[in-house]
Amino acid sequence: MVSVSLSTSKPTTARADALVLGIRTDDDKDVFGPSLDAIGFTGERNQVSSFPAGDLARVSLVVAVALPEEPTAEDLRRAAARGVRAAAQANVTSVAVDLHPADVDELGAVAEGVALGTYRYEAYKSKGKDKKKAKAKKHVESVVLLSPFARQVAAQDALDRAEIVTGAVNVVRSWVNTPPGDLRPPMFADAIAEHVGTQGSPVKVQVWDEKRLARERCGGLIGVGSGSDAPPRLVKLTYSPAGATQHIALVGKGITFDSGGLSIKPGASMQTMKLDMAGAAAVVGATVAIAELGLPIKVTTFACLAENMPSGSATRPGDVLSMRNGSTVEVHNTDAEGRLVLADGLSLAVEAKPDRIIDVATLTGACMIALGELTAGILGNDDDFRDQVFEASKTAGESMWPLPIVEEMKEKVNSSSIADLRQHNPKPYGGTLFAAAFLREFVGDVPWAHLDIAGPSFNEGSARDYTPVGGTGVAVRTLVQLASELAGSAG
């Protein structure tokens, strides 16, 4: 991970290979104005332009990044990532960044943009291939943020918070990017336990194997995982700091590979189905970050891990599964497996007696049809809590949008002729709402929010701003922000 530090140096005296300079108005051009005019820098939205610094500064390269006159924290976060990524193309190893943040919170947003924008996943890149090319290619190793209040204690606190939060996001990205054959449910459970650590960690870990899951009546996890020779797992994390007055439960869908089961997907649709564990990865990453930040809020987390595969032992359409809470579910489509494992996780979450529950899942393609590829849906049984999550997402800079659970869906969920609940929508409309209505059956009266991250969890296109190709780590920042607010420690 790139090293990020603070300095009160001026842009012209900063020591680095390159300078990223935010331009809001002509006043920001300062000594670089003639050069910016010469390269045709107009300041239009998202514009990035580079030029040699010459004798104007100690750096060798200046990267000018356009900003609105009154940028939001998210504007600064994205601009920092754009600028540092542009500087990296020039093969530099050190960068100074001056985006003129107005306060320490904005300075923290800049630090987040830097750390998120410099993420790389190279675990499977051959280190021995084309050694000359590999030797020539450099990466940004250190970034210094320029600010007149860089020496303030609060500024360092903001930097430390940014490091913890972005570190969690990047761990989640790497888990999502891991080839599915190398992160099957038992392997993922081991990876979570290793990430949490055991020596002195404030987060406690329990792993339930398939035998324990059967004893605990987790029929959703057992049913979904029955087609795979890699058995399901449930990982429970508990963070209980002294003085906590709030308790949230987090539940994540962790399908390490989704073939669709016997309702098998088309081959092309399976290519990226390693992403189907992004929800479980997000709740784990957020839990560890909340603990590292020392937030005074209790967190109980359930990562529901299974591999959805077709075989002679796989669950069939028409089968009936018994969930942890005693409800029976008639299966209609084995490719709607996520709601089945979440049903067990949500039931366990209710038993933990939290004040609120949030689940995160790459649940429905219908949510992508409704909101596109970049925006997550927020649904729930409590409008006030749903709206609180929405506000936290805006503060965190993650694109989400509230959706309703219309009451007609309850009738559909309860329409099975042989079981308590029907697993899949009988009509091809409102799939996101039906899935949320199904999950609502397992949360009782506890205020609950459901994040459908099917679209923004994975980027199949080109890298943009701080979003890399592949896993994005979406929802981690929103969950940490929400926990901060509930604990009374936002900022």
TrEMBL record:
<keyword id="KW-0963">Cytoplasm</keyword>
<comment type="function">
    <text>Presumably involved in the processing and regular turnover of intracellular proteins. Catalyzes the removal of unsubstituted N-terminal amino acids from various peptides.</text>
</comment>
<keyword id="KW-0378">Hydrolase</keyword>
<feature type="binding site">
    <location>
        <position position="258"/>
    </location>
    <ligand>
        <name>Mn(2+) 2</name>
    </ligand>
</feature>
<feature type="active site">
    <location>
        <position position="339"/>
    </location>
</feature>
<dbReference type="GO" id="GO:0070006">
    <property type="term" value="F:metalloaminopeptidase activity"/>
</dbReference>
<feature type="domain" description="Cytosol aminopeptidase">
    <location>
        <begin position="333"/>
        <end position="340"/>
    </location>
</feature>
<dbReference type="GO" id="GO:0006508">
    <property type="term" value="P:proteolysis"/>
</dbReference>
<dbReference type="InterPro" id="IPR000819">
    <property type="entry name" value="Peptidase_M17_C"/>
</dbReference>
<comment type="similarity">
    <text>Belongs to the peptidase M17 family.</text>
</comment>
<keyword id="KW-0479">Metal-binding</keyword>
<protein>
    <recommendedName>
        <fullName>Probable cytosol aminopeptidase</fullName>
        <ecNumber>3.4.11.1</ecNumber>
        <ecNumber>3.4.11.10</ecNumber>
    </recommendedName>
</protein>
<dbReference type="Pfam" id="PF02789">
    <property type="entry name" value="Peptidase_M17_N"/>
</dbReference>
<feature type="binding site">
    <location>
        <position position="276"/>
    </location>
    <ligand>
        <name>Mn(2+) 2</name>
    </ligand>
</feature>
<dbReference type="InterPro" id="IPR008283">
    <property type="entry name" value="Peptidase_M17_N"/>
</dbReference>
<dbReference type="InterPro" id="IPR011356">
    <property type="entry name" value="Leucine_aapep/pepB"/>
</dbReference>
<feature type="binding site">
    <location>
        <position position="337"/>
    </location>
    <ligand>
        <name>Mn(2+) 2</name>
    </ligand>
</feature>
<keyword id="KW-0464">Manganese</keyword>
<feature type="binding site">
    <location>
        <position position="258"/>
    </location>
    <ligand>
        <name>Mn(2+) 1</name>
    </ligand>
</feature>
<keyword id="KW-0031">Aminopeptidase</keyword>
<feature type="active site">
    <location>
        <position position="265"/>
    </location>
</feature>
<dbReference type="InterPro" id="IPR043472">
    <property type="entry name" value="Macro_dom-like"/>
</dbReference>
<feature type="binding site">
    <location>
        <position position="253"/>
    </location>
    <ligand>
        <name>Mn(2+) 2</name>
    </ligand>
</feature>
<feature type="binding site">
    <location>
        <position position="337"/>
    </location>
    <ligand>
        <name>Mn(2+) 1</name>
    </ligand>
</feature>
<dbReference type="GO" id="GO:0030145">
    <property type="term" value="F:manganese ion binding"/>
</dbReference>
<dbReference type="Pfam" id="PF00883">
    <property type="entry name" value="Peptidase_M17"/>
</dbReference>
<dbReference type="GO" id="GO:0005737">
    <property type="term" value="C:cytoplasm"/>
</dbReference>
<dbReference type="InterPro" id="IPR023042">
    <property type="entry name" value="Peptidase_M17_leu_NH2_pept"/>
</dbReference>
<feature type="binding site">
    <location>
        <position position="335"/>
    </location>
    <ligand>
        <name>Mn(2+) 1</name>
    </ligand>
</feature>
<keyword id="KW-0645">Protease</keyword>
